[in-house]
Amino acid sequence: MKHAGPQALAILEALLGQLRRLPGIVEKKPGVFYRRGRAFLHFHEDPAGLFADLKTGEEFERFALNSARERDALVRAARQVLSNAAAEPRT
Length: 91
Known about the structure:
Layout: E1 2-3, H1 6-11, H2 13-20, E2 26-29, E3 32-35, E4 38-46, E5 49-55, E6 60-64, H3 68-87
Antiparallel strand pairs: 1-4, 2-3, 3-4, 4-5, 5-6
């Protein structure tokens, strides 16, 4: 599964706009987000469709992005991870 290219990211532009507004993450290059200097979220394209890998803990979790419902689920999950991280004490 290859990383999403410009055409795939263009399809996801509305989703990317939502993600760019989330606090605590930085888009280092188009479609590649970091949190606290570590990879947090990136996108893939594949014959089965578009996908995102979101760091939900120690590992990345894969989310399908082929419907509005799936894209909403990614945004909710990213918000939840960021909310949980904000509640944790920094070391």
